[in-house]
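Field log, afternoon session.

UNIT: design team B
ACTIVITY: writing a sequence onto a fixed backbone
BACKBONE:
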């Protein structure tokens, strides 16, 4: 009986851990800019953000703020003067959230892209 209880508790802990991971993983975004470029960023909840000259092929860690505080690192901010959301001084046209989900039986990962309204993004991050 004890072994069955231990297995059940272990299973519950693993399931709870997966739910917590889903809640706290960074938001991965595909951002379309006014200059025609597309940037892939990951919203960083800490203090670090990738430098603008980062050449690695990955989701660049990006900070979100109400004003410009770094000219050398990735940053999303709201420009009050012309009411545009900006990434590194370029106007943001569209934002897509990238969601990944593991398919249990085949161990593959499916990727889904959902459009976010800019007004929703601004309210979500309290800009």
């Amino acid at each position: 009986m004890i072994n069955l209880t231990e297995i059940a508790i272990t299973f519950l802990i693993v399931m709870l851990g997966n739910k917590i991971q889903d809640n706290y993983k960074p938001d991965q975004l595909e951002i379309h800019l006014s200059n025609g470029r597309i940037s892939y960023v990951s919203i960083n909840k800490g203090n670090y953000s990738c430098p603008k000259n980062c050449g690695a092929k990955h989701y660049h860690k990006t900070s979100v703020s109400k004003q410009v505080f770094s000219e050398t690192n990735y940053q999303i901010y709201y420009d009050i003067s012309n009411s545009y959301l900006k990434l590194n001084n370029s106007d943001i046209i569209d934002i897509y959230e990238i969601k990944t989900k593991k398919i249990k039986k085949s161990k593959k990962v499916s990727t889904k892209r959902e459009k976010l309204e800019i007004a929703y993004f601004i309210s979500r991050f309290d800009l």
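LOG NOTE: The chain has a mean pLDDT of 84.
NEXT ACTIVITY: expression trials, pending approval
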